[in-house]
């Protein structure tokens, strides 16, 4: 996302249920990493070019610049995965309250449509505040893809795990096979192809997040949601094991440098090894980021109560994801225009990132409490 969180609430009726705390903590972690990425864009003005399937691949002048970008890669796949988990838990809780299948699907259709509208009508206004201008007439960012995958993913909510697992694999392989060869970067693609599959475009329409490449993570999240409903302890233990397997698979595919990478490594340095294609997410990108994310989720689930108290800020941010996302873009854009109109170094950007988090924490704490006092069908709970 420029990345952000726009997940559905993952609660049934009890926001403090033990199985939900690790989800909120992980969501909070990837939210603050997302904020780092956007502080880099608005404040430092040193955000790298995207890691696209074609065109020039980003090069980094120093290790800190690369690591600042690398850690933020956890955000986008984490948001789509957690949204899938939340959708399953939401549907499960609403079925228990007597909602019909079509009422649940209708809820996600409305919510997905709202996310798409927010992308086009609100979020794109924030990007226009970028120092030096934005230049794009229409930008298709992460909220658009979250809304689109929410709408499509609502059809997966009644699939059993033995269907969801092969479906996820088919989506993973299909995206990799359908992604154009890097040599076709400068070719024109139809509007449906751009919105559904192929990132890129021109100043009239630029797409970073087409819908289909991210649907696999939503399907995987729904599958994990089933595991969580069946046995939370076993599900979190499985997250640790899967995370380790994903990282090993990443190392293997990255070493082979063939299928699963979308395009070859730019060089032989360790930075080149870790610098993977994000737009659309290559298999190696998803293995690396979801491997780390799943291990973090499993560790959060094993954390003692004392550590969970230390993680309270993450949980607060994780319980107000869309509110945080919409607010933080304008906050960091304002800080950049006001305090660093000519940009700054990456080390000097970090205090501004932390300042933004300090400002956002009480706002998210207030909004999280306010939101959960609303009725279950209130539009305010969408935020």
Summarize the topology.
Blueprint: H1 21-44, H2 63-72, H3 75-96, H4 101-127, E1 139-140, H5 142-153, H6 161-178, H7 191-196, E2 200-201, E3 206-207, H8 212-230, H9 232-256, H10 270-274, H11 283-302, H12 305-310, H13 312-318, H14 321-339, H15 346-371
Parallel strand pairs: 1-3
Antiparallel strand pairs: 2-3
Q: What does this 3D model show about the protein?
A:
- The chain contains 15 helices and three strands.
- The chain has 383 residues and is mostly helical.
- The protein has one domain.
- The protein has a three-stranded mixed sheet with strand order 1-3-2.
- Helix 1 packs across helix 11, helix 6 runs antiparallel to helix 8 and helix 8 packs antiparallel against helix 9.
- The longest helix is centred in the first third of the chain and has 27 residues.
- The two termini are 18 Å apart.
Structural descriptors:
disordered N terminus, 383 residues, 15 helices, mainly alpha, three-stranded mixed beta sheet
Number of domains: 1
Strand element count:
3
| Helical content (DSSP H or I, runs of 4+) | 55-70%
Radius of gyration: 20 Å
Shape: globular
In sequence order, what are the helices and strands, one letter per element?
Answer: HHHHEHHHEEHHHHHHHH
Structural class: mainly alpha
Note the beta-strand portion. Answer: under 5%
């Amino acid at each position: 996302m420029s990345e952000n969180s726009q997940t559905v609430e993952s609660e049934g009726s009890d926001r403090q249920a033990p199985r939900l705390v690790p989800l909120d903590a992980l969501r909070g972690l990837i939210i603050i990493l997302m904020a780092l990425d956007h502080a880099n864009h608005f404040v430092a003005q040193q955000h790298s070019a995207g890691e696209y399937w074609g065109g020039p691949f980003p090069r980094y002048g120093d290790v800190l610049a690369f690591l600042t970008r690398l850690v933020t890669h956890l955000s986008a796949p984490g948001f789509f995965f957690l949204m899938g988990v939340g959708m399953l838990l939401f549907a499960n809780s609403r079925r228990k309250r007597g909602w019909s299948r079509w009422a649940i699907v209708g809820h996600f259709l409305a919510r997905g449509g709202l996310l798409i509208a927010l992308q086009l009508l609100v979020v794109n206004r924030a990007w226009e505040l970028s120092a030096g201008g934005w230049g794009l007439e229409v930008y298709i960012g992460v909220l658009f893809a979250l809304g689109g995958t929410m709408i499509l993913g609502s059809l997966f909510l009644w699939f059993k795990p033995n269907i969801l697992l092969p479906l996820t694999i088919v989506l993973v392989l299909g995206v990799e096979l359908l992604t154009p060869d890097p040599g076709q970067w400068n070719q024109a693609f139809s509007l449906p192809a751009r919105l559904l599959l192929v990132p890129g475009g021109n100043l009239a329409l630029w797409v970073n997040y087409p819908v289909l490449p991210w649907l696999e993570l939503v399907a995987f999240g729904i599958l994990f949601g089933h595991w969580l409903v069946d046995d939370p302890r076993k599900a979190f233990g499985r997250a640790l094991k899967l995370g380790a397997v994903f990282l090993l698979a990443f190392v293997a595919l990255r070493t082979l440098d063939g299928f699963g990478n979308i395009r070859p490594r730019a060089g032989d340095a360790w930075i080149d090894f870790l610098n993977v294609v994000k737009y659309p997410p290559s298999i190696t990108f998803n293995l690396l980021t979801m491997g780390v994310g799943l291990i973090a989720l499993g560790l959060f689930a094993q954390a003692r109560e004392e550590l969970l108290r230390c993680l309270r800020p993450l949980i607060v941010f994780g319980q107000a994801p869309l509110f945080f996302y919409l607010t933080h873009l304008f906050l960091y854009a304002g800080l950049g225009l006001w305090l660093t109109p000519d940009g700054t170094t990456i080390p000097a950007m970090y205090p501004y990132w932390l300042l933004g988090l300090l400002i956002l924490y009480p706002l998210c704490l207030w909004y999280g409490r306010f939101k959960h006092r609303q009725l279950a069908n209130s539009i305010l709970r969408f935020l």
